[in-house]
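User: quick one, sequence for these tokens?
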């Protein structure tokens, strides 16, 4: 019994430590975001309108199809935006196979030797119909992630949610309204509506994107080289983008 209690206490300590680390990271990001907003000097007309208070709603920008060139616009209008890293990199494991890492490391040969670069992919979203995806490249991991976050904020889109499954009787927007698909490289992704309570039936990286988009229940079919996570994420993003495209064409 004492051994069982010790293992329970250890697991509780790890869980609490992980939660503290996540909270500290979010607090640090909020502080950094607030400091950047204070120093922000808009360079575009859209940025000046947002800073002056003429535009106070992100949907006003998306519906008018205005291009967002400054990530501070999103920080101003959506301060509680969440982000997740897509594990695009890989390295050899101890027992064989590959171990996923947050960044993809590439090397180029020069006269001075090898020069390494880090490539990161980040998805951002408010878990309520707004999602964006972006990539960043730099010589340092932290710089690559920051570039990817900034790029993802400028690539945000609005998606259409609904309850398209014939098994579901609710009208809550917990899933997609109809079947949608997207393609990137050899990867083809199909997102199908699912009844409430099923959850997201997909792999972890796909769940990250759909969760931040605000989709709680969905079936996902994939074909092609899904081990190429960059193509997989781009295909999912295109499938979500097609939902809004069909809505606009219907209007």
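Assistant:
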């Amino acid at each position: 019994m004492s051994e069982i209690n010790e293992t329970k206490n250890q697991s509780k300590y790890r869980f609490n430590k992980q939660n503290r680390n996540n909270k500290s990271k979010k607090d640090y990001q909020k502080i950094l975001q607030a400091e950047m907003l204070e120093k922000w000097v808009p360079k575009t007309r859209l940025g000046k309108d947002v800073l002056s208070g003429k535009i106070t709603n992100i949907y006003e920008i998306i519906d008018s199809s205005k291009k967002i060139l400054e990530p501070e616009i999103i920080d101003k209008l959506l301060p509680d935006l969440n982000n997740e890293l897509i594990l695009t990199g890989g390295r050899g494991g101890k027992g064989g196979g590959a171990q996923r890492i947050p960044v993809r490391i590439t090397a180029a040969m020069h006269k001075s030797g090898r020069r390494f670069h880090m490539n990161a992919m980040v998805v951002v979203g408010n878990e309520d119909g707004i999602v964006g995806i972006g990539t960043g490249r730099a010589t340092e991991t932290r710089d690559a992630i920051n570039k990817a976050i900034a790029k993802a904020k400028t690539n945000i889109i609005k998606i259409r949610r609904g309850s398209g499954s014939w098994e579901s009787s609710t009208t809550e927007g917990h899933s997609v309204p109809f079947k949608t698909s997207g393609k990137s490289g050899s990867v083809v992704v199909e997102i199908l509506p699912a009844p409430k309570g099923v959850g997201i039936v997909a792999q972890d990286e796909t769940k990250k994107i759909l969760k931040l988009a605000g989709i709680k229940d969905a079936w996902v079919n994939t074909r092609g080289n899904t081990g190429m996570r960059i193509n997989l994420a781009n295909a999912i993003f295109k499938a979500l983008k097609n939902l809004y495209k069909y809505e606009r064409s219907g209007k």
